[in-house]
Amino acid sequence: MPHPIRVGIGGWSYEPWRETFYPDDVPKKGELAYASWQLTAIEINSTFYRNQKPHVFAKWADETPEDFRFTVKAQRMTTTRKTANEIREAVDWFVSGGVTALGEKLGAINWQFAKGKQFEADYFKAFLAALPAEQDGVALRHVLEVRNDSYKCEDFADLLRKHGCAVVASDSEEWPMPDMETAGFAYVRLQCSQAGEATGYPAAELDAWAGTLKDWAKTREVFAFFISGAKERNPAAARALIERVS
Q1: Which residues are bridge partners to 109 per DSSP?
Q2: Mind listing the pLDDT tens digit for each residue in 52-106?
Q3: CB 100 within 8 A of CB 74
Q4: Which of 177, 172, 145, 161 is nearest to 220 (CA)?
Q5: What is the chain's alpha carbon radius of gyration, rounded to the nearest angstrom?
Q6: Residue 202 half-sphere exposure toward CB, CA atoms < 13 A
Q7: Can you tell me the distance from the alpha carbon of 143 to that of 199, in angstroms, rounded to the nearest whole number?
Q8: Which residues does the chain have with pLDDT short of 70?
Q9: CA distance 137 to 27
Q10: What does DSSP assign to residue 229?
Q11: 178 within 8 A of 152, measured Cβ to Cβ
Q12: Cβ(222)–Cβ(230) under 8 Å?
């Protein structure tokens, strides 16, 4: 039995989507509810810049279908700490700040590192050790977004595997990253949508990604998000991919 494949976009509030995604009769306050019935997951990006209160996360969870999932980008300061104690304090501050109010709808937390951050085994031993398996009775899953070739090594994969964490795969031309099977889920950010394609990606590329995700789903739950690129096309790309993996 294959694992779930959840496909979505980054956030749900973007003015051009009023023309390319949301019907005229959907009010601003109804955008999340509408998006959650069209897609199967959303990556919350605003939390990279500022935390949200628990009641806000709870409200978002209440507005979406039972099988819908959110992933959440951790606040950017959490991945810039230097010492093991500073890392632990920053991680604890974020995971105790309200995100667990999403409950079972919390799919994973994305810890994004700067492009210039190089792989350092001792640093990542400390960082991964600081990531809790649960908070407030909610199971937590973690994925690391790293952005240069120094991470394309077995030492990094072994550390992820030891801690049951995933890596963000990416098709970005600036920082392509392969999938590494190191956890019970896979996570990919697709960043090459094109304005000239009604569905963001050419049909052949969507077909290829559908095949890849189905292959991953043989052993893992899958999250795939259309991020950046021609952002106005990303909802159409997500819906087209959902049709192919359903």
Answers
A1: 72, 142
A2: 999 999 999 999 999 999 999 999 999 999 999 999 999 999 999 999 999 999 9
A3: no
A4: 161
A5: 17
A6: 3
A7: 27
A8: none
A9: 35
A10: S
A11: yes
A12: no
